[in-house]
Amino acid sequence: MSRRAFYWLLIVLLTAAGYWFFTRRHFMADRPTRGGTIVAFGDSLTEGVGATSGHDYVSVLARRIGMPIINAGRSGDTTATALGRLESDVLDKNPKIVILFLGGNDAIRSRPVAETFANLKDMIEMIHRHGSAVMLIGIHVGLSASTYDTNFADLAEREKTSFVPNILGGILGHDNLMSDGIHPDDQGYRIVADRIEPILMEMLK
């Protein structure tokens, strides 16, 4: 084998190994032990700000999987305000799976990173105590973006949740996928749904 061929083979093998590692972590499936509904819990990105009617990621996912998904997104929510309504807006709905998509407003408002992830941890533990599974959605925004990446991944691993990292990667900052500087448009939300769907289907098995 020539040296050039060897290097190409090495690149292919390393790429495959990296993809395998990424998808293994990406597709780690939290399993519910009870519940009958799916709830998407978050802020304006879950509520669907920037999308036309029926094109937010929650509606797109519901059509694709053929199951209703309760949209419990509320514009402006931080992890602290969301924690305050978790019981009434999520746990009282008897969910089997909760899509947890929060943290963006904390970053925008420069809330302490430790506080943000303590709130997320509390929410995950409450959901797990209920017998429901969690899909944690990671975001990469603000001045603490790299710190957020690490904390999201570590939290998902510690709490054994399903995990989608950097959900807005390749969307945020691309005008053709955004309705404004923060929220995706219909096409952007469709990509968000693309990234969540395979993990959700794995959790439903």
- Characterize the largest beta sheet: strand count, sense, and whether it forms a barrel: 5 strands, parallel
CATH level-4 homologous superfamily: SGNH hydrolase
Structural class: alpha/beta
How much of the sequence lies in strands comes to: 5-15%
Number of structurally distinct domains: 1
> Helicity level, as a percent range?
40-55%
Give unreliable regions as ranges.
Answer: 5-25
Shape: globular
Distance between the termini: 45 Å
Total DSSP E strands: 5
Q: Walk across the major sheet and give the strand order.
A: 2-1-3-4-5
- According to CATH, what is the topology? Rossmann fold
Could you tell me the radius of gyration in angstroms? 18 Å
Features:
alpha/beta, 5 strands, 51% helix, globular, SGNH_hydro, phosphatidylcholine lysophospholipase activity, SGNH hydrolase-type esterase domain-containing protein, SGNH_hydro_sf
Q: Mind explaining what this structure looks like?
A:
This protein has 205 residues and is α/β, with parallel strands linked by helices. The protein has a single domain (29-204), classed as Rossmann fold, CATH 3.40.50. Helices cover 51% and strands 13% of the residues. It is built from eight helices and five strands. It has helices at residues 3-26, 44-47, 57-65, 79-89, 104-108, 113-129, 145-159, 186-204; strands at residues 37-42, 69-73, 95-101, 133-137, 162-164. The chain has a five-stranded parallel sheet, sandwiched between helices. β4 (133-137), α7 and β5 (162-164) form a beta-alpha-beta unit. α3 crosses α8 (186-204). The longest helix is centred in the first third of the chain and has 24 residues, at 3-26. The chain is globular. The chain starts with a helix and ends with a helix. Mean pLDDT is 89; it is low at 5-25.
